[in-house]
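This section describes the prediction task in plain terms. A model, or a person checking by hand, is given the sequence of a single protein chain and must write out its three-dimensional structure as a string of tokens. No templates, partner chains or ligands are provided. The sample shown here is typical of the held-out split.
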Amino acid sequence: MLGAVETRSVSPVFVGRAEELGTLHDALVRACEGEPQALLIGGEAGVGKTRLVEEFAAAARHHGAVVALGGCVEIGADGLPFAPFSTALRALRRELPGELAAAAAGQEEELARLLPELGESRAGRHDEDGMARLFELTARLLERVAAEHTVVLALEDLHWADASTRHLLSYLFRTLRTGRLVVLATYRSDDIHRRHPLRPLLAELDRLRTIRRLELARFNRDEVCRQVAGILAHDPEPDQVDAIFERSDGNAFFVEELAVAAHEGCRTGLADSLRDLLLVRVEGMPEPAQQVARIVAEGGSTVEYRLLAAVARLAEDDLIEALRAAVNASILAPAPGGDGYRFRHSLVREAVSDDLLPGERSRLNRRYAEALETDPALVPADQRATRLASYWYHAHDAAKALPAVLEASVEARRRHAYSEQLRLLERAMELWDAAPDAVRRTLRPVDYAEVYPPCGCDPATTALRYLDLLAEAAVAGRLCGERERALKITKRALGLLDEEGTGDALRAAWFWIQRSRLVQGLARSDGWKEIATAQDLVRGLPPSEVHAEVLATAAHWSMLHEPGPDALTAAERAVEYARMVGADDIESNARLTLGGLMVDAGQIDTGLGHMYDVRDEVVARGLAAIVGRSHVNLPSVLEGVGRSEEAVGILREGLRLTGAMGLRDAEAWIWSNLAESLISLGRWDEAADAAGNAQRRGQTAGPHGSGANCLAFLALARGQVPEAARHLAQGRAAYGPHDPMPQHDLPISWLTIALAAAEGRLTDARAELARTLESGFPLGTQRYAWPLLLRAATAEADARGLPAARDGREQVLDGIFAAVKRLTTHAPVWLAHERWVRAELHRAEGRSTPDTWSEVVTAFEPLGRPYDLARVRYRLAESLLSGGGEDERDRATELLRLAHTVARHLGAGPLADASTALGRRARLPLRPATEPAPAPADPAEALGLTSRERDVLRLIAAGHTNRRIAQELFISPKTASVHVSNILGKLGVSGRGEAAAVAHRLGLFPAEMLMPGPAG
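The expected answer:
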């Protein structure tokens, strides 16, 4: 549009900043080596932040880096959601189109919320994970692009940033760990007053060691002299330098302005203030140029040429001449990309804008709004709704502003910019009474509201209500983390419902459910009071989406806090109601809850069937939030019934899916569940890694606490008592006291008892047990209750005979025994635990027998839990040795060898030491003597199997029980059990199924030898 123009006030010489530029170059070098860098550059307005970034960007490009610049866009007092990131990603797409497309592959619909050029963003229900998912995918996108190219992402004017931009930048600073990437942001430090929204972010980032802060100081006199010399193209007079330095106080921008003013013959003392000096320069332009400057000042950070032409209403030649004059005067500058204009410095824009008269300001905003309504293509599509809303609002036209603001709120919601949605909805509430009734009657919920379901009303014909705005604002506040504001909004809504007296029970119930979620999020309470109120309100009403949601929420809460028949009934009704009204998402969530509760109630196969079905359906439909939940809950339930290997397979798939979908917190929960299942399977080193990943990836307290508990268990089992105490403290702190749940509290109690026992504090262990028994074990908590009772019983058995343990001993054992009788044993793993607890109680009473422990060993052999099996084998060996007899010694030797081998493999020091000590006391060799011998041709001999063990393995491979093996070989079941244990140890497997698989793989037995006989 314009040819070459003269820019007189920018110094061609880059002055000073050597230390700051060195820091930036060092960051670039580190980034090139694959270490992401984060920097914040602060300084007062005009001090030279942009110039420093420009110099660094040029140097980075010279070294082969790709530079993507983005600025926070200000429209009046409004920031565009994610504007700097959208601009920077567009620049990155222009530079590296193929690489960005490959990095975004599979997640284009989600990333389109930031970069609409990638495609249409997915519609659907909004949830707590939506914004976090977008942030995680953005971080992954940048890491992938920066895997092969050094990328500099520079975001300017952070003091104007919208809340969503601030949240995303914080997320990137906290989570970027790989890639050749430099992320830097600039902000005005003099604008950051006590209540400025950027202030909390700066305080948060100060605590991160990975972020470097640069604070640009003003120039000293020598630097001012060099700057003025660069502008004037000759050395200035010392008196002139002194005057400019004194007047500018070393601010680079004011040095430029004063130098130009002096060069043009103006005395630096003519203007009363530096602000007036800026206006004098504007007023020195021709009137059309001044008019254009005033229009641009009110249009936003950048104004597109066609939009400017429509608002200015000048002939094109006159407009171009006015623009040329403004650019030559260094007041305006072409915007990057060449499609519009902006002020060369925001200080000039602010001075011009502040000088506008109130009526003039509203008139200009009206002209902008009218031009944009006439031709929406005048601005980029992703900015249109927000800018139109801002223009009409500042034009003080409520009739036009209300629908425009609501439309902008819908656009913000679509982009997961919930903070901006909340701000816009609050603005709509402000405009509501001022807008004419005729305008309000034309507004429809279907266009502007989605969170409150229609519940029988036709959203296409029903008028939008003020309560609909409150509902949208309450959810937006919860999703963006402004829970206090959201809580006040729900209180206001419920108050209005009371005042109306319309008896709208469904809407009131809906707001009570929102309050429940908010008070839980604020750690005020467990949320049940609010849920119960909602249940009372919908009781007796016909099925509706709100009714289904209330029931589903109540069932889910009960599953976590008080599982039982009432929870199961609520879940069944929630599924039924959701299905009747077509609320698919509510139905899927309710079916997951129902499946878990059915498993707790003993309907294991049916419950798991429900959960598998939901898992498959939501994966096929791509419902991210429920995909995450299904891959957390289903394997957790499988682990709860002892099917750990099956759980691990689903967890591995869950990690793949949640990673691809950006479900970081669900991924963290999956890591913690994986750690638990790997512990059961005896893969402890993998479990420790998984628990660490849970803590690193988790965004909420739950995965941190669960990961800490797993690490505490491993530390105790390995004899690292201080380390266990540290992890236990972390787990307890993560959960907090405000929302007690059995799945949190019972593992903490188990660890507390175990730690106290390990430290010899039996009294403390008993006190924790007493507190737990007083609270009781709700239905469905057996997975936590059995290990806890086992640990308490073991502590009592280990303390038998100690004088300090006598007082209160009988009451403790009676309490454990009473709890055992009440707990369910629906799954083989818990039936095995019941036998184990009873065996420990017998040991505590001094009446432990080999028969008792043989039953326990037999119960654990097929379960694939090597540590548990090793522990009960140790106890059986101990019991056998206490009875004497040579046969028992041989059997005890093999059991101890197996237990010792597993303990050493796992690093379970206390068990290994106990096995060694018992073997030493009984004079038993724990390691079989090794004699050099030629490698046998027979695989059975290579495995060290005796002829009798070979016969037993043949019957194991045929699927026989120990009892049937004994009948076939004319031996006792006890002897058969010993042979089975020996075989498992020699094969290095944890169960009969694995032993059979080894026999089949090695071809030890012809098929006809494996034909089963009559059932035994």
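For orientation: The first strand starts at residue 37 and ends at 43.
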